Amino acid sequence: MAHATAHHDTAHEDTSPFDVVLWGATGFVGRLVAEYFAEHYSRSDTSQGKISWAIAGRNRAKLESLRRDLKDQFSLSEDLSILVGDALDPESLDSIARQSRVVCTTVGPYAKYGTNLVEACVAHGTDYCDLTGEVAWVRDIIDRYHEEAREAGARLVHCCGFDSMPSDLGTLMIQEESRKIHGRPCENVRLLVTDAQGGFSGGTLASLFGTLERASRDDRVRSILADPYALNPPGTRSGPNEGSQDEGLQDEGLQDEGFQWGARYDQTVGAWTGPFLMAPVNEKVVRRSNALMGDLMEDRHGGDGYGPAFRYAESTQFGPGLSGAVKAYGTALLSATLVGVVATPPLRRLLETLALPDPGEGPSREAIESGYFDISLYGWGRDDSGTRFGVRGTVAADRDPGYGATAIMLAESALCLASGEANSALQGGCLTPASGMGMPLTQRLQDAGLTFDAEAFDLRG
Questions:
Q1: 317 and 297, same structural domain?
Q2: Angle at 107 between CA 102 and CA 109, to 5 degrees
Q3: What is the pLDDT of residues 360-404, one digit of tens each?
Q4: CATH number reported for the structural domain that contains residue 88 in this entry
Q5: Which residues, at least 6 apart from 452, have a Cβ–Cβ distance to it below 8 Å?
Q6: Does residue 211 or residue 136 have the better pLDDT?
């Protein structure tokens, strides 16, 4: 892979034999990422171009078995390099971080297994991307490593899977289209999960259960989950999502509440909506993007990120009428019950036994390939005359969201960082997909088969 102007020190670049090291390659999602690299970026007959990459984990025998499988399945002419380490052994992780421009990790729960790897990447100015949805852990990493990573030129990009890529890049897409059409960003963006088939990955569920369990016994974690601006930098940890909705939106039949726990009828789309389980994570990531990009967007657009009045919220969309209402209220009840169960240790252990796949396990390949998701985003704002305008967008994929689509998102995130394509003046620190890589990552995902579309939307229609 050709390297563009990079942010690392010259010595690090010259001594890094790998563009990407995939940490946790023998796990279920890790194997999917490895297969994606092997199929699209490891053969001379691929249009994308070859990369230098290695697989890494704690079990050499499993890594060697994976290497044989990849070589046979994808007719690789060269052997992949193998790096062995342990998530709880900082010295072994130090060696891995030193050898790569980007470390791409699928090993969670990250609060248990992720911190040492982050520290190693910061120490060597190595870029990093993960799949975490553990918002309290992300807050901890920001507090401990953001400034140090910024000074070292290490870009630490969290939440590079189904949570929170469609939310973060989808909102960026809406705002770029709004600036193109109307010369300014939307003041409000609302995401609706309109359809999906497939489940959360075992890692996502483990992270979710772990976060809710920590919240049940830790006031600080509870406060982070409840705070809509918990991931924002100092000085930006308040905003309009803390208060009541915009009365002007109510007057025009537009919904603009904060996080949605219950069921309600959304006049914007003419359908009932209910909670989206990952919204408490995704919403915070999007707001951090807005805060981080505030200074960056000024030169390009004459604006301040999405603006200090920016509001963002997510829900799951159901149908109109009685059936839609039943589904919305049922989802709200199920979500509340799940939170209560996870907060009760005996019930949580039972749920983990019933719901979580064993390590390295997941759905069948047929289920992954037949899965899909379809997400709609609606943005609205005001022009100079005070007239409201709208932008509507779609983010979709024809793979299971928690496994197949997530593997593509993580792989392309790592490659976007390694290639030097990332469109951001932020050369280090704890970043988000939108603030750390921007629209070039969206283009990579489109090229990989995901859908990102946006267009003007008549709010009066």
A1: yes
A2: 130
A3: 677 888 888 899 999 999 999 998 888 999 999 999 999 999 899
A4: 3.40.50.720
A5: 169, 170, 173, 393, 394, 395, 442, 445, 446
A6: 136
Whether 441 is covered by a domain: the verdict is no
Q: Which of 352, 316, 314 is nearest to 207 (CA)?
A: 352
Torsion sign over Cα 398, 402, 430, 3: negative
Spatial distance between the Cα atoms of 435 and 426, rounded to a whole number of angstroms: 8
pLDDT digits (tens, 9 = 90+) for 403-431: 999 999 999 999 999 998 988 888 899 99
| 99: in domain | yes
Residues 196, 82, single domain; the answer is no
SS3 168: helix
Q: Which residues contact 253 (CB under 8 A, 6 or more apart)?
A: 267, 268
Domain that holds residue 264: 165-400+450-457
In the DSSP assignment, the letter for residue 235 is T
Q: In what order do the strands lie in the sheet with 100-105?
A: 81-84, 53-57, 18-23, 100-105, 127-129, 155-157, 429-431
**Are 435 and 293 a contacting pair, CB within 8 Å?**
yes
